[in-house]
Batch of 4 targets.
Target 1
Amino acid sequence: MAWVLVTGEDDAIYHGVTRVVRREGYEVVAAPDGATALQLLVDVARVQDVVVLLRPRMGQLGATEFLSAVATEDILLRWHAYILLDGPPVELPAEVERFRATLAIPQVAAPLDADDEDGWADLLDAINLAVRQLPAHRPPSEGAPALR
């Protein structure tokens, strides 16, 4: 079963994801800082499928820098699925929108609170869809030719 990685410093989102998503059989992990999340994704790419719930602000490394790394890195970071969780309606930076389009990253409204059943259902639907779209084969081992 895929892991769901929650990024950003929002404890309410983390606790809500833990409550709702774990019930569906997913393991939930957290990385409040984007740099830590990137390293984790590289480290587990060959052994674990991960759906990453991105936040616009993730410590010192925000969504723009995070998605830039995913877009320009090797296959390991592209191996995972990404969902951008947004908060109250705000306009995202143009670079984030460009990366979302290039990498086909859906945007889902963050549930408003623990009782937002529709919001949690929408997020869970997005996670389930992302899991179904994960690649069927693992990235090559180090030294092996990259998939093209």
Target 2
Amino acid sequence: MSTPIELDENSTTILAEGRRILNAAAQNHVNIRWMGAGAIATHSPRFRYLLKETGRRLTDLDFMGSSKDFDRMQGLLEPLGYQPMRWVGEAYTVGERSIYVHGTTGIKIDIFFDQLKMCHTIDFRKRLDADPLTISLADLLLEKMQIVRINEKDIIDTIVLLSEHDIGKNDNETINVDYISNLLSQDWGFYYTVTTNLNKIKDYPSKYPGLAPENMENVRGKVDEILQAIETRPKSSSWKFRARIGTRKKWYVDVEEMIR
């Protein structure tokens, strides 16, 4: 890629707003980290052009915070023009999640606290500070790969992330495969969803002409590297027991049912 391709106007606005919120959080000593597509785009300046080429538009913002800051979040966001939504789903109790909407732009902010509870749960209580701006690259990958009914926009986000970053054994601008493989070696259901989705990723890059052939192979090679690390990691006894049951028993939380 020789000349950077600008994102669409809406996506550019979302990225600028995410930075504005993070700057305000830092000034007010509120510990939050960016999540989701906006975080991936921010962390992937060389390959986020793929978002525009594939028609992927950023529409909202997602953050992970500490439950210690739950009560302070409203004081942070209201001066920035955001108001809390009063209903966030019966599955979420006070201290787990907040949703805010900007009164003028309509931008929605979804803030989770301590854990991401979706199809599978990712615990951030010991990992919130792994990266100074976003959740870690490994957690950004898991955030997308934990979606049982994964859609094309999440696959595009993952391709951008994998195109940009190397696979490594720490969280310093690499996708920490040791963390991923260890986490999945304890939970067969999470393992099954992630490995199923990673294999789907391998078939997608060929759909996008903006990704050069050598980069298509690069993405597939990184997926294979992650899968190999996951498969070769010794599994816990509870993982092995659950694996014998397999998909005969539901292995994930149905998010649509959870927030209905």
Target 3
Amino acid sequence: MKAIALFFIALILLSGCATSAIPINDAVDVQTDRIFLNNQLNVEGNAVAVFVRDVGFMGCAVYEHLFIDGKKAASLNPGEKVEFVLPPGEHIFGVIPTDPFGTHALNSIDQDLKPDKRYFYRIYADGNSMRTEVQRYVPVFE
């Protein structure tokens, strides 16, 4: 009986590790006091990058810190989104959770943004590797 109970507890814990994408219309904006990157460019002739943090159990008690080109851009809670107008060209996007013990590394991707385009990025926790990552994706609009 104990083995069966332990199996179900382990199953619940492991399935709770991964996060899931949220429809973009259900995501709420990051509070302005947690947006650190000056974003004063006009949209015309530039690119727009929208970042959405997944919802789910894993890491829900900590912020995910978004970095753009090595500068802290925003801190996101689960289910939040933030958008930045960026000049076209090469950019590096990275994320790292709040980590007082220094056990996590910044995970990043390189992107070549084109003018007058809108890009969507998902910030999520991988249940298998226990890492937080950022990836480009096609959002669901509901």
Target 4
Amino acid sequence: MVPEPKRNSGRTGRRRLGPAELAIRDRKAAGDHRRRYGPTTSMVSDKLPPPPSWFGPELAEIWREIVATSPPGILTAADHPAVVAYAVAVREHDRLAQRIARRKTPTTAPLSRQLRLLAQEVRAAATHLGLSIYQRTRIALPPPPPELPDNPHLRSVTLVEAGRVRGVYRVGRK
């Protein structure tokens, strides 16, 4: 009997990357991707929506911590479902860890197995969102806008770094 050759189980080849995946790439790879597929942020807004209405106070606090500690500009509206899954996984991991810590007897295998599985889920969600330590070192985001002076005669500020224009920022009227 001759064994059948293995089949690929999914898409192979090039694919369009999302904004979070694109932010993780180095500049040359991100530039090549933009030239090949065009801008990726035109389809989604840059602002992350608020947490879902069904979140309780505990999940809402975890949500706020995730958004506050994420690198600026990495989370977009397209990441909303992934941030929801990450927040729920973090809460469930914390609950199970507290439950194990309250036990007077040594930890049983089923609970520690569940804790390991939840830890893998949290790690995978953090990596997907670019929030793990390794992914943060690979993120190439533009610098945040500078503090702009409060001058009524000033219309814009040009940020120049190493002889290259990094950005032109308009000064808003108050």
